[in-house]
Amino acid sequence: MNWLQELTGTNKAVIAMCHLQAMPGDPYYDKAKGMDYVVEMARQELRTLQDGGVDAVMFSNEFSLPYLTDVRTETVAAMARIIGELKSEIKIPYGVNVLWDAKKSIDLAAATGAQFVRGFFTGVYGSDFGLWNTNVGETVRHRQAVGADNVKLLFNIVPESAKYMAVRDIREIAVSTVFVGKPDALCISGLTAGAPTDPQLLRFMKEAVPGTVVLANTGVNAANFREQLSIADGVVMETAFKVDGKSENKADVSKVSSLMDRIKEFRLGLKG
């Protein structure tokens, strides 16, 4: 049994994204509605996902566009307030993702009790957000320094809206990343949020790093979840749960519960 099964109590876990509205300091923050509105929207989203039966939830600042690679204090503070106000209502395992700053994600996890974080911990990229560098040695040491040793690290291995600066085979990257960074999971994505993860790439990753949890990170939906979950150890989902299948819309409890019922039925027929 891997750590994700132990955490969620199931095989092939579904981690649902709870997207937070733009917050103070973000270009599209609604000052008139203020933070009370942001908190209430997060509360509604969390309730919808939990009532629909997802296995875990991950809070992220999805609407902090355009993203920063060195996130400012006000964003982390706002996210901590939101999660702090909701903590008594969270009934399932939860993680955090401060886009796109791995160290700030760890800080937020340490402050809120989150059990896992997702981020880019390794690699150098040419991205829509400029030249993007990482320092896995510094980041992992930072986790220890802030007392977050038990927080699981989910490494994004296929960058969204970016490309590796070095020309390397993705399987080579996966193997070296696991050897150097010792991630708790690798997240395999499509090109952008909502874009399906290539099933062939998922198979390559499972073969390349058989002892590491591999997650399908984007584009899992009602049409492809069987194929994705037959390969991956779990999935990160969001768009498929939203009204009209659009990332910017609210999650729909009927869509969540309907799809989760189908996923749970599918899991019953699998081993491990």
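the 2nd protein, sequnce then structure:
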Amino acid sequence: MTELFAPLSEVIHARKSVRKFDSDYQIAPGVIEEMLQEATLAPSSSNLQPWRFIVIQDEEAKKKIKEFSFNQEQMETSSAIIAVVGDTEMYHNIDEIYLSNLEAGNIDEVNVQRQIDNAKALYPNAPADARLTIAAFDAGLVSMQFMLIAKAKGYDTVPMGGFDKAQFAKEFNLEDRYAPLVLIALGKAAAPAYGSTRLPLEKITSFV
């Protein structure tokens, strides 16, 4: 049976940041994996995909995260917390990514070698803060894509940047190269999200 989805515009308008989840509702790990797989079709800088995910469903782990996340209720009542982590040493994956692209027939040998050489000249020599900025930008792209996919499948989300990132990294034994960037609570809403307005388009847009 073909799964039917709402039009993209409808999904965009329906997605709201939910903060009250049904704590009894659980989403199977396999379903979350499918959504993450789709989300990773998001673009990234030089296709280096510097995102990593930690899917947190263990109740004790969620309570621990709540402690250093301003005690936000959704940390504990959501079905899962998706931690989006940035790999600031994304250049370690250059060969694997580009040679996979070659194997898939998306590029020829001459151009793949040129791309590998260019990426290896640029990314390892870039300042650490520049690489963090790149990872954070790309994490935003994959996070938004994940939240829209979740909404299209009937789930609710809220992204959170307000948490103690150093404490999170310590709790999950992250290497220095990995930077916690955003937490996405995922589940079924137990109460409607608050509505919100946006600035008028003419205030934020110009045509030249």
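Strands lie at 51-56, 80-87, 156-160, 178-187. The longest strand covers residues 178-187.
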